[in-house]
Amino acid sequence: MGGLRKLAVPFVVPGPCGVAIRDRLKHLTPQDEKVLRTVGEHQGALASRDLKARCADGHDHSAETWASRKRGLTGVSSSRIAGAITKATHDQWALARRGQAAHIQNLAAGIRTLRHRLPLPVGEKGTKRAAGGYRSRGEWFRKSRRLAALEARHVAAVAEWQAGRVRVVRGGRRLLNTRHHLTEARLTEEQWRERWEAGRWFLAADGESGKRFGNETIRVTPDGEVSIKLPAPLAHLANAQHGRYILTSTVAFAHRGAEWADRIEANRSVAYRIHLDTGRGRWYLTASWQRPAVKTIPLAAACARGMIGVDTNADHFAAYRLDRHGNPVGDPRRFPYDLSGTASHRDAQIRHALTRLINWAVRVGVAAIGIEDLDFTTEKTREKHGRKKRFRQLISGIPTGRLKARLVSMAAEQGLAIVAVDPAYTSLWGAQHWQKPLVTSHRTMSRHDAAGIAIGRRALGHPVRDGVSPARTQLRAWGRTAPPPHDRSDRAGHRTVQAGPGDPGREGTRPPTTDRPPGGPSPNGKRKRETSASTTVRDAPRTQQWVQDSLMRTG
What we know:
Elements: E1 11-12, E2 18-25, H1 30-57, H2 63-74, H3 79-117, H4 137-163, H5 173-178, H6 182-185, H7 189-199, E3 204-205, E4 218-220, E5 225-229, E6 244-250, H8 257-265, E7 271-277, E8 282-290, H9 299-302, E9 307-312, E10 316-322, E11 328-336, H10 343-364, E12 368-372, H11 382-385, H12 389-397, H13 400-413, E13 417-421, H14 426-435, H15 447-460, H16 470-477
Parallel strand pairs: 9-12, 12-13
Antiparallel strand pairs: 1-13, 2-8, 3-7, 4-5, 5-6, 7-8, 9-10, 10-11
């Protein structure tokens, strides 16, 4: 194992801690839409002002400054709306800080690569673990200029990090930059303006346990009636008592509707958010709440009924079922998806592929799915992969973060555990030790299928490879294990993997062959082929000791 990095221990991924469901607000009147737009615009302006104040505070933020900002917002809205705005501001500022830290880490990775390659002679070949020198003097010169640029950007980013300055755009920086490329985005200025304004609205409220139906600001009754507590400057728009506005539209959550109804009837907190899909011209209401933390099951319990190892690729999931001893069962399964097109299309493709994978896992009766703990944060730098632009685009297109969240939440609903394993060497060792032995005339094995076996074995706690000979690898691939060394005794230890007494398909004792004519049927009713006569001395039965002939002696 010299030269190989230490592998991380497999672990059971914790289940989801929150739930979000959505329904469309249908049949809204023009007055309803006018009120929603007015309230969203008013509260969005307050959120922008509060975010500006939070960014100006930087590291000087404290509980006193938070309370001061909240008191200032309460006078132009309400205490609950002010609390929701300040909480959203802090979440957005923290997200920007995490993005800033990731940007600094990415710049540092690029600088390390450039500093490693620039001192090397031009044209020097690299190894599998380290890149070599650059191909030409021209490339070396351009990379030296890029090193200076990255170092300057890194110094500026670190200075902003230390000063507590972040760059945040309410509505999204991508949509802001789209304003300068309307032709490429196929948008008019009016369409972009509508999206920009809708993205900066604030129509959300956190839940409150003990309050009526779990939320005082945006209230939804068990019958689906939606009402909004208007801010103080907009109280004249109310159509109900206590400054509330009741929408003509009603909601009925088809997904998790019973769970949502149980919460609001018990006055447990539920957060709501109203937003406008400008592309479709539709209004939606999203309800969300937190679940109590549930302790994950032990790894041994998750692996008791076997495992499905899943290899994540750019266009499909390669899955293979393994029993609890790590032996492959059946044929490989592939679940394709297409990651081209819009973000919604890619998300739908991932969701459909995961649905088919989870349904198959439920049918075969396993209790866990093993998957690689992928993170391409440090793998997408231009300096690391050089001219491999298509490869960088490939790993950038795999939505690892969304994939993890989707898989964990969807598997939890079916009672399946997710076991995350270290992704190191799974494709290499899987192809080396499992691809060729499992190929038959009716089964084709790809490198990704073999990687699925390696992932599943690692999740079960079995080694992917032991440095064994091809003959022992062949036996292991067909569900067998190598015999103990030296002889047939157990003085060197038992077999590495031994089937239990209750395992179906285990090799049992053979039926007796007495009282049966040669070539006749066996006691179980099946005809057994007659043993052929021996043609070599090696095959002859050993009935006596070998005696050396005196005529064969030479000395």
